[in-house]
Each structure stands twice: as structure tokens, then as C-alpha cells.
Design brief:
The complex is a heterodimer of chains A (562) and B (326). Chain A has 562 residues and is mostly helical. Chain A has a single domain, classed as Up-down Bundle (Cytochrome C Oxidase, Chain A), CATH 1.20.210.10. Chain A is built from 15 helices and no strands. The longest helix of chain A has 36 residues. Chain B has 2 domains: 77 residues; 168 residues, Immunoglobulin-like (Sandwich), CATH 2.60.40.420. In chain B, strands 1, 2, 3, 4, 6 and 9 form a 6-stranded mixed sheet that branches. A 3-stranded mixed sheet of chain B has the order 5-11-10, with helices on one face. In chain B, strands 7-8 form a two-stranded antiparallel ribbon. Chain B is elongated. The termini of chain B are far apart.
Chain lengths: 562, 326
């Protein structure tokens, strides 16, 4: 740490000439400003989210009644492949990078990311990945699922170019995320405000740091695996072809060695958002800052050791099954610690029922269900029954919709005033929350039972046996409520751009430095970077301002008792 | 456009109350569904009347469910309580607590404790789930499992080593079953498609393989899934006590008709199984002979040109007489 003396604030740069703020669409495509790139990320990924949502609704329509013929089998297979791939690679992972881009420099008191041009490159690579992937819609979209298991993804069984579009999506978004991760890491390591030691890093920044490290560890593996798949498909290699001495299980190992850390890549920044939102609206410091930060790192580490719990039904020795059951159990402990800490943060606070808080609390209550069903699936004999059924679909959506998406919505409602300078409408926001909260539970709760009744995932039709028809209809109705809830927020976001109440720099009385600057923040973020003295620098600053205005109001300092 | 926000933005407390009412309503609707759909499958995996390994998985599942319900009610209860009890009020002052080490250690140990117990229970029950028992004395006479080509350490065997070892081969989009005939040559064995006929009171071990892409063998009432992966042999077993029909389907995405890759196990009395097997053998032999004659005929008729089509007639006439179960 360079211990520069910032007691006396001296401007570091003398401006010779002031450029007018760039305007017009060219300024957006040439920008290297982390805030504009952040907005590009957020808007683009949200559009992909809506596309993935439409794909999900089409599938739910198909499954609404037994033996439905609304979609053909190949369309259905293409839809779940597009849906899964879009939501993971084009929505949840990059939208976290969007929030990170916008708020990481602001939260740590930096004027931009460490490598602004690389930052722009990350975004444009992401967009190209998305376009390359979606162009396959006009030819022949991939049909092998987002997991693209070999040999189904081999040329023999997926001869169309859609599979290659998927591989290029993995490569392009992978490079995008790798560059982004390096950028995040470098920024956090080097550009923190004076006084911001590791123990004063906002928890969202802790999770971004972990997100970046996990991306760096996991992405090269899937990039390599996708390359092997590409050479298998077109250049005659046989890495995944048993007839040439390869092994289809190699793909599964490589895929899940990336795939499980990917779950934590998607959900840890969400944990960070929750850890920022809860203390602000409970008006109470986060309970157990160190425990939450430590739990984040421990989850990331253990997340690298659990991949084969996705493969309990493959031919495996008992000792392998036992190892991955225990490691999956272990990961439940730090996750539980986080949930307990969040509940304890609300405990004895004064909880203000603003929309960001509702989404944050909704997150805890729903994510808990995903966590608990995860324990069922970690017990491998039980997994033998539940694996690849709708129970797993329910579990992963409780984690990713209940977890990541609710956290993202909490983030949207919490940070929209900072990004736009206007507040989102609280009433509309609460309706959106109500529809989404009820929608997710109606959609996915019943899917546990669908799976327990024996319905596998990824089937385009099912016979009218048992209660499957009723359960699936309930799930379909729920999915439309969820969709309506999302649309209400879209409407709120668009409407409030013009009609929202002016927010001012610090509408929520936040704890972290992004609330120190105007809304929206100026191009250089900070004219003066404040010295950080605790994990809640804005509380200190507000206290200091209050003290100063008090002393300037009362001219006789001798009158004060202390 | 303006109508909705006006309707949507009532006094804050009203919205809150309405939200609460809505949540309550869903909970109520949910419990109603629970009550009507109170079949066993609502809460637990399919079981009952099948094989003991499925029963044991079901028991294990129920134990975890009991723990899960306690944790769920506890945490959600605390969350709901702190939301209601500590909501912002005029004179309320938030307590500035930053943490409590003893509490942190406490709940870490608590969570670990629960998981240790679950792990122990799993280990205790594992043997009965993973390893098959001996056949009953009045079961179908079986031989030692011999024809395992990829001899594997993972193959579970009954204590006496005897079982009806059927090879299950997944191929798009049908399952092929090869029944043992006592010798090492698997090519001349009796086989069937889609429907697997087995004797009751007899341990049936399955050696599961895949022909083309990965599939997954799964009959819910007869135990968990076993993936069929090309180049590998996977194993599972079941033992049915009473005659019956058990349905399932492929559980690993295998292509466009994955949804139609059905499987059925028909359990019949050992004597009946013996006759079925003999009939099946005769049927296959007759089909083979007919096919051979047809091929000869075709070869004589058309000197060259069309390749003799693969004979699938034995596949078509597959449904066994005892299809309907008990």
C-alpha cells in the first residue's frame, strides 16, 4: 500500500482544456467509460433475458397440456438449448459484469477500471458471441441442451452448424469474461481509495473479486473442452469418441469442472448485492462482515471440488460418489452461514419495506429452498432417483431465478437512481415483486412434485398419467405470472426515465462510496476521492457533514458539552 | 397509461397489507393443492410394490425431508418474524450490532452437525441400496454372473454371486435387453426390445450400455437411474417380489425423440418367465430362419443390386402375452 498523505487534498491533474461530454450514438459505440459500458452491459443482457424468458414461456405452453403438439420435438429441443445457454452465458454471468463495471470503480473510489479499452473489448466480444449464437436461429439452432453432452453434440448426431454456433458463443463470451475478470481483479487490487484495506472492501466488491478468480479458473477449462469438441466435429480428432479411444465422460468432467463453479459465478455477485441492500434498509451494519467475506471465498474454493455431483448416475466407484457427496455437503455450510448472517442483519433493525429490500428478502426466502433441495441432490442414492427429473429443474431454478434473478432485481431497484438520477416507482415495483414472487413459487414449487412423479427433464411431451397434467398446468400458469412480473419492471424502468422522482446523490442513505457522487455520476466519478475509515464510508461522511453543519450553525463552540 | 400507476400506488401500508394478503392466499392455495394431490408422489419419489432399493431410497429421502422441513420452517420463520417484528416504526432505533463470534461458531457447528448425521444415515443405508441381495429360494434358478465383458470393480453382485444378469443396451430410441443363456457368446442369446420380462423373487442385475449416444436407464419403482454411456458399462439391480408392470423412460437427453424412448419391466412368476423365455427363443429362431430364407430367395431372384434390408420383424412382434401385470 502506497501510504500517500491525503490529509491535504491537492488536485493531481490540472485541466488545460475541457472536452464537452460526448453525445450521440457514436459516443456509445466508441466509449471506454466504465459507466457507459456498464449500461451497455445491463441493457444488452436484459434484452437477452427477455429473449430467454420468451423461450421459456413457449416451452411452458407446450407442456401446459399432455401430448401437446404446439411445438415439434426439434423446436422444443432447440428452445431449451437456447433458453439455458442464453440465461447462463448471455444474461446472468454478464449482467453481474454489468453491475460490476458500473459500480466497482464507484464503490472503491476509482475513476475508471484499470484497463478501460479492454473493458470495451469485453463488452463487444459478449455482444458478438450473442449475435453469432442467435444467428443460428435462421439456420438450424443447436439441439443438444446447454450441456452439449458428447456424443450427442458430435458431428454424427448434431450435423448442423447450430452446434458450432454454440461453440463459438462459448469462445467469444469466454474471452469476454476472461478479459473482464482480469480487469476486475486488477482494478480491485490496485485502485482502491486511500484507507480502503481488504477489511473495508464493500461485500459486493468481495464477491466480484471471487467472481473474477472463479472465472479465471473455470473458463479456460470450458474453452479448451469446446475447442476439443470443435476439432472432433471438423478435424477428425476423437477426444470424446470412444471408437477412437476417446471418452464421452471426459466431456462431462470438463464441462462440469467449469459448470459447477459457473453456478457460483452466477450467484456469488448476487450474494454481494444482497449483502449491500440488507444493511441499508435495515439501517443496521451487516451482521458478521468477516464471516460473509470468508464464506464467499470458501464457497468459491469448495465450488471447484464438487463437479462430479452432476454425474452421480454415470458409472462411478463408490468412493468417488462419497467424496463428491461430502464436498457438496461442505459447501452447504458456508452458504448456510451467509443466510443466517443475512437474517441476523434484519434482526433488531428497522426494516424499511422498499422494493430493493423486498427483492432481497424474497431472495433469501426462495434461495433457501434451492439450497435445501441441493442437499437432497447431494445424497447420491437419492440423486439416482431425482437426477435429470423436474426436481432438478425446480432446484436449479430456485437457485438461479430465486437466487440470481431476485438479486439482480434488487440491484436494479437499488441502483437505478444512481444510474439515471431518478427513482423507480415504488408502487409499480411492489406489484412487480408480488407477481414475480408468487410466479416463481407457483411455477417451480410444483415442479418438485412433477419430478417426484417421474417426469424427466428435456422431454417435449408427456402422457396424461397421474397428476402430471394438473401439475404442469399449474406450473405453466405460474410461469406467465413470473413473466408478467418481469414486464411490470421493464415498464417501470422505461417509464421512470422520464417520470421518476429526482433521486439526488444518496436517496437510500447508502453505506458505500457510489452514493458520495451525483446521480448520474460525472464522467470522472470523483473530483476528490474521500479517505475511507470504515467499511461504511458514507456513514462516516454523513456524520462528518452533520457535525460540520452543526458547528457552523452554532457559532460558539464553547457551548457544546463535548 | 396513467390509469395503472394510480391504481397501483395506494398508501404504503395498504400495499404492504395487500402483499401480505396475496402471499397468504398463495400459501392457502398451495396447501389446498397439497391436500387434494395428497398422493404419495407429491412429497416423495415413486415407490411401493417395486424393488427394495427404490424403497430404501424412498426412506432415505423421507429422512432428509424431515430435516429439511425443520430447517425450512426455522429459517423462514425467523425471516418472517424479523420482517414483521422489526419493521421500521417511528420511534424504533436500529441496534448497531456488527456480529457475534459465538453465534457464528454456533450455527456453523449446527449446520455441520446436521450434515454429519445425514452422511452417517446415508452410509448406513447405502449397502442395501447399492448391493443386491440373493434371490429367494423359490425364485428363478440363476447362474453366476459371468458374461461381463468389461469386468468392472463396480458391478454389485449378490452375496452368492448368482443373479439373472441382463444386458441393457440403449439405442436411439429403444432399449434392447439381452437375456443370459449360460455361455459366453452373447450373440446367440435371447433378446427383446422395449419390454423387459423378468421373474419375480429373483435378483436381476443389469449391465447397461449405449449403442450411439448417452442414455439413462430409469424405472422409478425399481430404483435409481444408471446412465448408459458409450464405451462404458454401468450397473444396477432390482428384485421384484410380486408380478406387475413397471414403467419408465430414458432420462438422459438423446435426441429429438428422447421423450418417446420408453421402457417397461414386466415381472412374472418364475415358471411363467421360463415359458416366456422359451417362446421368445422359438420366435427369434423362427424369425431368423424366415429371414435367412428370404435373403436366400432375394439373392437368387436378383443377382445383384439391392442389399438385403436388416430384418426387424423380430423387433416388431415384441409384446409378451403377460403384458397386463397383476
Amino acid at each position: 500500500m502506497a501510504a500517500t498523505d491525503t490529509a491535504v487534498l491537492v488536485p493531481e491533474i490540472t485541466a488545460q482544456r475541457v472536452e464537452p461530454p460526448p453525445r450521440g450514438w457514436t459516443s456509445w459505440i466508441t466509449t471506454t467509460d466504465h459507466k457507459r459500458i456498464g449500461i451497455l452491459y445491463l441493457v444488452t443482457t436484459f434484452v437477452f433475458f427477455l429473449m430467454g424468458g420468451v423461450e421459456a414461456l413457449l416451452m411452458r405452453v407446450q407442456l401446459g397440456t399432455p401430448d401437446n403438439t404446439f411445438l415439434t420435438p426439434s423446436t422444443y429441443n432447440a428452445l431449451f438449448t437456447l433458453h439455458g445457454t442464453t440465461m447462463i452465458f448471455l444474461f446472468v454471468v454478464p449482467i453481474m459484469a454489468g453491475f460490476g463495471n458500473y459500480f466497482l470503480p464507484l464503490m472503491i473510489g476509482a475513476r475508471d477500471m484499470a484497463f478501460p479499452k479492454l473493458n470495451a473489448l469485453s463488452y463487444w466480444l459478449l455482444l458478438s458471441g450473442g449475435i453469432v449464437f442467435y444467428i443460428s436461429l435462421f439456420f438450424s439452432p443447436p439441439e443438444a441442451g446447454w450441456t452439449s453432452y458428447a456424443p450427442l453434440s458430435a458431428e454424427t448426431f448434431s450435423e448442423t452448424s447450430g452446434m458450432d454456433a454454440w461453440i463459438f458463443l462459448i469462445h467469444l463470451t469466454g474471452i469476454s469474461s476472461l478479459i473482464g475478470a482480469i480487469n476486475f481483479y486488477a482494478t480491485i487490487a490496485n485502485m482502491r481509495a486511500p484507507g480502503m484495506g481488504w477489511g473495508r472492501l464493500p461485500l459486493f466488491v468481495w464477491t466480484l473479486l471471487t467472481y473474477a478468480v472463479l472465472l479465471l479458473l473455470a473458463l479456460p477449462v470450458i474453452a479448451g473442452a469446446a475447442t476439443l469438441l470443435l476439432t472432433d466435429r471438423h478435424f477428425g480428432t476423437g477426444y470424446f469418441d470412444q471408437s477412437q479411444g476417446g471418452d464421452p465422460l471426459l466431456w462431462q468432467h470438463l464441462f462440469w469442472f467449469f459448470g459447477h463453479p459457473e453456478v457460483y459465478i452466477m450467484v456469488l455477485p448476487g450474494f454481494g448485492i444482497i449483502s449491500e441492500v440488507l444493511p441499508v434498509f435495515a439501517r443496521k451494519p451487516i451482521f458478521g462482515y468477516k464471516a460473509i467475506a470468508a464464506a464467499t471465498v470458501v464457497i468459491a474454493f469448495l465450488g471447484l471440488l464438487v463437479w462430479a455431483h452432476h454425474m452421480f448416475t454415470t458409472p462411478s466407484a463408490t468412493i468417488v460418489l462419497v467424496f463428491f457427496m461430502i464436498s457438496s455437503f461442505l459447501i452447504a455450510i458456508p452458504t448456510g452461514v451467509k443466510i443466517f448472517n443475512w437474517v441476523a442483519t434484519l434482526w433488531r433493525g428497522t426494516v424499511e419495506f422498499k422494493t430493493p429490500l423486498l427483492f432481497a428478502v424474497g431472495f433469501i426466502s426462495v434461495f433457501l429452498i434451492g439450497g435445501i433441495t441441493g442437499v437432497f441432490l447431494a445424497v447420491f442414492p437419492v440423486d439416482w432417483q431425482l437426477h435429470d427429473t423436474y426436481f432438478v429443474v425446480a432446484h436449479l431454478h430456485y437457485v438461479l431465478v430465486g437466487g440470481s434473478v431476485f438479486a439482480i432485481f434488487a440491484g436494479i431497484y437499488y441502483w437505478y437512481p444512481k444510474i439515471t438520477g431518478r427513482m423507480l416507482d415504488e408502487g409499480i415495483g411492489k406489484w412487480s415483486f408480488a407477481f414475480m414472487y408468487i410466479g416463481i413459487n407457483v411455477t417451480f414449487m410444483i415442479q418438485h412434485s412433477i419430478g417426484l412423479e417421474g417426469m424427466p427433464r428435456r422431454i417435449y411431451e408427456y402422457p396424461d398419467v397421474g397428476n402430471l397434467a394438473l401439475y404442469n398446468l399449474i406450473s405453466t400458469i405460474g410461469s406467465f405470472m413470473l413473466g408478467l412480473g418481469v414486464l411490470i419492471t421493464v415498464w417501470n424502468v422505461v417509464r421512470s426515465l422520464k417520470k421518476g422522482v429526482a433521486a439526488g446523490p444518496d436517496p437510500w442513505k447508502g453505506n458505500t462510496l457510489e452514493w458520495f457522487v451525483e446521480s448520474p455520476p460525472p464522467v470522472n466519478n470523483f473530483d476528490v476521492i474521500p479517505r475511507v475509515r470504515s467499511v461504511e464510508p458514507m456513514k462516516d461522511i454523513r456524520r462528518q457533514v452533520a457535525r460540520q453543519s452543526e458547528s457552523s450553525l452554532s457559532p460558539a463552540p464553547a457551548g457544546s458539552p463535548d | 397509461m396513467n390509469r395503472m400507476p394510480a391504481a397501483l400506488a395506494p398508501a404504503r401500508s395498504r400495499t404492504r397489507r395487500r402483499l401480505f394478503a396475496l402471499t397468504l392466499l398463495t400459501a392457502l392455495a398451495g396447501s389446498l393443492v397439497l391436500a387434494t394431490g395428497a398422493s404419495a408422489d407429491f412429497w416423495t419419489p415413486e415407490s411401493g410394490g417395486g424393488s427394495a432399493n427404490a424403497e430404501n431410497i424412498d426412506t432415505l429421502y423421507k429422512l432428509i425431508l424431515a430435516v429439511a422441513v425443520v430447517v425450512f420452517v426455522g429459517v423462514e420463520g425467523m425471516l418472517l418474524y424479523s420482517m414483521i417484528r422489526f419493521r421500521a416504526r417511528k420511534d424504533a432505533v436500529p441496534a448497531q450490532i456488527r456480529g457475534n463470534t459465538r453465534l457464528e461458531i454456533g450455527w456453523t457447528l449446527g449446520a455441520s452437525g446436521i450434515l454429519v448425521i445425514l452422511a452417517i444415515v446415508t452410509f448406513v443405508m447405502l449397502d442395501d441400496i447399492r448391493n443386491p441381495p440373493n434371490s429367494d429360494a423359490d425364485g428363478y434358478p440363476t447362474q453366476r454372473i459371468v458374461n461381463v465383458q468389461n469386468a468392472s470393480a463396480y458391478q454389485p453382485r449378490p452375496p452368492n454371486g448368482r443373479a439373472l444378469n441382463v444386458e441393457v443396451n440403449g439405442q436411439r430410441y429403444v432399449w434392447r435387453y439381452t437375456y443370459p443363456d449360460g455361455d459366453d457368446n452373447i450373440l446367440n442369446n435371447t433378446f427383446s426390445y422395449e419390454t423387459l420380462v423378468v421373474p419375480t423373487k429373483t435378483t436381476v442385475t443389469l449391465a447397461i450400455k449405449a449403442q450411439d449416444v448417452a442414455h439413462s436407464w430409469w424405472i422409478p419403482k425399481l430404483g435409481g437411474k444408471a446412465d448408459a454411456v458409450p464405451g462404458h458399462t454401468n450397473f444396477t439391480w432390482f428384485k421384484v417380489q410380486r408380478p406387475g408392470t413397471f414403467r419408465g423412460q430414458c432420462a438422459e437427453l438423446c435426441g429429438r425423440n428422447h421423450a418417446d424412448m420408453l421402457a417397461k419391466v414386466v415381472a412374472v412368476e418364475p415358471d411363467e418367465f421360463k415359458t416366456w423365455l422359451e417362446n421368445k427363443r422359438r420366435e427369434i429362431d423362427a424369425n431368423n430362419k424366415a429371414a435367412e430364407e428370404r435373403r436366400k430367395q432375394e439373392a437368387e431372384d436378383t443377382a445383384a443390386g439391392d442389399s438385403p434390408a436388416e430384418d426387424k420383424s423380430s423387433v416388431e412382434s415384441e409384446t409378451p402375452a403377460q403384458d397386463e401385470g397383476p
